[in-house]
Structures are given as structure tokens and as C-alpha cells.
Amino acid sequence: MEEEEQAGEHLQEEEGQDDTQKGALASILESVYSFAANKVGAKPVVVKKKPPKAGNKGDDDDDDGDDGAQLRFQYEGTSRHLGQWDLVGVSGVSAMHATLIPNTNKIVLLEKVEKNTHAFLTENAEQFSFSVEYDIDESTFRPLHTKTNQFCSAGGYRPDGTIISLGGAEAQANIAEGWNSLRFLSSCNATHSRCDWDTRNDITLKAGRWYPTVEALADGRLFIMGGSTKGASVNDKEIGVPSWELYPPLESNPTHFAFLEETLPYNLYPMAHLLPDGNLFIFANTRGIIFSTKTWSILKNLPELPGPPRNYPLSGGSVLLPLRPESNYEPEVLICGGATEFSSQAKGQDQCGRIKPLAKDADWVMEDMPMGRMMPDLTLLPDGSVMMFNGANRGTAGYGRAKDPVLRPIRYQPWDTSETIQANSRFTIQNPSYIPRLYHSIAMPVLDGRVMVAGSNPNANTLEWSEFPVEYRVEMFSPGYMFTDTPRPLLAAGRTIGRTIKRPEALSIQTLQETNANPERGQGDGPATENIISFNTVFEIEVQFYSGLVTSEAQVLTPKEGNAGGKPSRVQVNLLNGGFVTHSTHMSQRLVGLEVVGYVVNREGGLDKLKVKGPRDGALTPPGWYQMTVVENGIPSEGTWVRVQ
């Protein structure tokens, strides 16, 4: 059964967990912010929860054995249909930058070279590590080696899954400057030293960049733009880098980009999204454009977004809404929040703007949020909704510049239903965390359908206690779709952390190809099994539905006619890339729905089969790694890594 303890008491240590990380976890868990109870209206409790045995429901208690514990934050009068928070571990470093490691259940975290880290190199316990590989299954971290300062960098993936971190900041201690750096980390299931960052002196950016943006293109290259030549509160003509370049690089020097001069001073970490026609939506300050990836010129100037600028340090957030076959993959961009002005007393913007950039008469449609928020993390969920985490309602981005943390995430449903029409809002307030996440926070969707939330480093180069100290606690947010009444088999215990998640189960792709992980750069792991999806090619997956509502092929196939309301089909197969996340900028984040073209029911009690058509091309789905999920009536399965090529 569950044992409840007041927040701040020691959590029983899990057997087998590394002693150093256990000690750090126990120490950090003792610190609970006293103001949080008043902020959210109830006092949080910490719950010890033993993982249920196979076949049990997620709400069942089990006293047999002691397989570990979880911290769960419960508030009086709340429903888990509005989400559940679990405190799962510590990050080692302050999670300023994050991206998933493809074909694993791990995430790499990076931070600034400073004294804030709690991670030390394995071979030298007195030397800090400024990047770690965090194991989501085990809730432990492994220190990595960095040669250059990756503070305020950007990043993305090569099609083979190699992670690239680029740009950065000045030299610190024994770490070299990172302005021009390219750092490579390959997908790697091993834990030995080969799985580490590789920085090459012979491969660099052609321009030094601090606060740049990266977006993956249709051919797998990375588009890199903007930033400044040194750290600053706002950009200006003396330090700005108004240019773009590619990786792999062109032979020419970086190309001048006048748009980044015209949008000064609020254009650090410009927003960018690859559109299904292969061109780029780019946004800075209050201006949006469509930028050709063939002629490398502006094709279209979009109307200005009403309200104040939305880029750093006012720091709103943007997301390319899910691209769905039901709406013929028409793209829409959502930009939300930000500060009203560059002032420590600024309020959080409480509006979002939504635009169809390829429409003939494209214009912004404004929607009111339930509350103001700057520094939001707009995170795509596998069901196609958008979650808004982290941030504050007073101040701006920057060290020591924000207060009034926003503890409640918000769910945004891009499509209309009778409920959203009746409420006259697509927003739903979710259950709160009790941990403030201000400057330098992240949120990332993970394979089992939850969202990992970490970070918050609003204080420069100090571990001293303050109202909002440097944060190392790692939380998992479980959306409401994980607590429906539709039964499903127990997922692997390491993925669910002891909960029965009642969702349809997506199993492996039928055709597996044995390939060699032969990364262009970085330290690879040798042979690896990859699930391959080819463009415009039909493949099969095995599934089991449990709602009892799916009984025929007609109920499963993707509608041929466009859906004007944008409501998703009853059954969907989605590809999700969580992107490279830093400073409320989710680079290359993307969800693409695939067309279901066939359904075969297994009448002999086995698994059914879905026939699915691979994505049209790289403009719709840039080549690389994605989390594939099956969604039935809004309930997504656990994800499976697939590679699109």
C-alpha cells in the first residue's frame, strides 16, 4: 500500500542506485519551497510507491517486496486526468540544454562551464563535468567530457542520429571557448568512454555564435542562423551575427541575412520551423517570413504578430503544430507568451498567436491563455496536443531577472471539439508541480508518453541558497491520457516506473534491418538494430486495441477528404521528434501523422496489423530518428524508435 510522508522527509533509498547519486537525491529532496503550498492551494505530499506486478492495475497497491520508490506530488481535490507529477532523480548538471539520444531511452544534458554542477568526471573526482547522459529507465546519470564551453549553444541531429551541439561561449577554467565549436555525440547503448562528446579542431562553424538557432532541412542538412559574438542582455549591431550557414557546410562563407539586422534588438534564438513545402518559417521580434531553401531569399513577409516582441530576453515560445494527413498537412505555427517589456517588473504575456503561413491571406488569430507566462516550454505530446511548462509571470529571461514562477502547466488542444467550443478555449489548466522552473529550464517528451521536466538556473555561477536556487531535481509529468479506463497490458517496468499505463500497445515494425551505426562524427557503438521507414513506402506494424470501438477497416483508415475542423482520426500513427531544447526554443521539434491505408484483424486471437504509408518526403519529415506511436481515440501507445530515410 502507499505510505504518505510530508514533503521534505527522507525518501527510502533504492537498492542498487549509485551511492553518490543517492546521497545527492536525498539531500536535494529535503529542500521543499515553503511558498509552493500557498501558490497552488494545497500542501504537497511525498508518496512511496512500489511497482505493481504484471497484470495489476496502476491504482492497485502491492506490499510484496521493496522494488524501489517514487515521489509523487498530490494535491487535495485534484484529478490525475489533469496530469500527475513524479520526482524521479537528480540531473547532475543544471539542465540548460537537452536532447534525446536516438534509439535509446537516454537524454543528454548540457550546461554552462561554472561552479553550479553536481557532476564530476569519473577519472577525477575533483574535476567538474558539464554534460551528462541521463538514463530515463534508471534515473541515473553518467558524466561526459566537453572540451569547449557549450553555454547558450544550439543543436540538432544528422540523419544517422549523431547529435550536434554548436556554438557556445567564452573559455572558462580548463574548458576552451565554444563560439565556433561543433560537438558530436553518436547514439550509443554502451556505457564505456567511447560514448562521449567528440570535438574536432578541424571542423568548426564559419562564424562564432552565441544564442543561435538550428533547424533540420528536407535533405538532412542543418540550417544555422543568428546569434551574437559575445554574451549580452540584448542583441545589437556591434555584436550581432546577421548571417546563416549550413552543416555540412557550403564552400562559401556565412551568408548575410538582413532580416536579422532589421529585427534588432530582440532576435536572439530566432524561431524557425521547416514547412512541408521545404521552405522555412522564421520569426524574430514581431516579424515572420517564409524563407526559400532553394534560392535562399525571402519569399513572403507575414503580418506582424500583435503585442510585444517574443524573442530573448522577452522569451515567448513557438511550436509547429502537428502536421496531419486529415488536413492535407497544412502547417500552422503557434507562438505563446513572453514578457510585456524588457524590465524586471514586466508581466507575462497571456496571449498566443496562431497562423497558417502558407495560406494566401495568412494572418494571426489571437487566443487568450488562462495566465501570463514568459520563458514557456511548448512541448508536443504524442496525442497531438501541446503542453506548456515552466516559466514565470514577472520579469524577463536572464540571471536574477524573473519572479512569480508559473507552477501549473497548460494543455493546448489544436483541434476543436464540443468541449473546447463550449468553453470557448482550447486551453486546460493542469495539476501543478511544486518546483519553480525559471531561466534555463527544459521539457522533453519521452518514449513512454510522459514529459521529462528539469533545470532552472537563474543564478550565475553559484550554489548559494536563494529564493530560486539552482535546480537539479528531475520530474516526470504524466498527462491525463495515461489514466483512462481503457485497459492495456503492463508495459516494461523500466519504462513505466511501476505504473500500469492503460493505452494501446504498438509493437515492433515487421521488417527490421541490421545496419551499422557508422556516424559521420563522434564515438559510435558499432552494429545496431534499427527500425527503418522509407519515404512513400507502405509498411506494417502489429497492434492491439482495447477500447472495443475499432471493429472494421473503415473505422481505422485515414479519411481521404480533408478535415476542415482539423480533428484527428480515430486511429493515428504519429512520428514525434522532441528536438534540441534550450531557452524556451525547441529546435526541429515536429509531429507528423502518417496515413493508415489498411487494417487486418487477427481472428485467431493474435495481434492485428496496421498498414501505414511512410512520409511523403523529407520536407514533411526530415530524415532521421523519431518516436513512433499509435493513437486510439486520443490515447497514445508507448513510443518505438524508428529511422526515416
UniProtKB/TrEMBL annotation:
Signal recorded as keyword: yes
InterPro entries in the record: Gal_Oxase/kelch_b-propeller (IPR011043), Gal_Oxidase_central_sf (IPR037293), Glyoxal_oxidase_N (IPR009880), GO-like_E_set (IPR015202), Ig-like_fold (IPR013783), Ig_E-set (IPR014756)
PANTHER family in the cross-refs: LOW QUALITY PROTEIN: ALDEHYDE OXIDASE GLOX-LIKE, SECRETED PROTEIN-RELATED
Domain annotation Galactose oxidase-like Early set: ranges: 567-644
Identification of the protein by name: Glyoxal oxidase
CDD domains: E_set_GO_C (cd02851)
Pfam short name (any one): GO-like_E_set
Region span, Disordered: 1-23, 46-70
All copies of domain Glyoxal oxidase N-terminal, residue ranges: 121-481
Alphabetical keyword list: Signal
UniProt keyword annotation of Signal present: yes
